[in-house]
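REVIEWER CHECKLIST
Item 1: Sequence provided? yes
Item 2: Single chain? yes
Item 3: Sequence as submitted:
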Amino acid sequence: MPPDAEGVATASRRSPAPSRRPITLESRLVRYDDGPDRLTVCPPGLAGDARMSTWLSADSDAFLDLETVR
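Item 4: Structure as written out by the authors:
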């Protein structure tokens, strides 16, 4: 999921269950001079407590491009 000019990338994945809606996530890459870059993934459109409680952050090299590993 390549980021746009602001470092934001979005991806959708359709769930195997037809009754479920697609899962959409947004990612933000933060670059650090003194350590590994970090990528944070969360649902789009959230703010405040909802955003703070539904995110995942890890070193950017822990993530793989979906098209590459298929």
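Item 5: Key structural point noted by reviewer: The chain has a mean pLDDT of 81.
Item 6: Recommendation: ____
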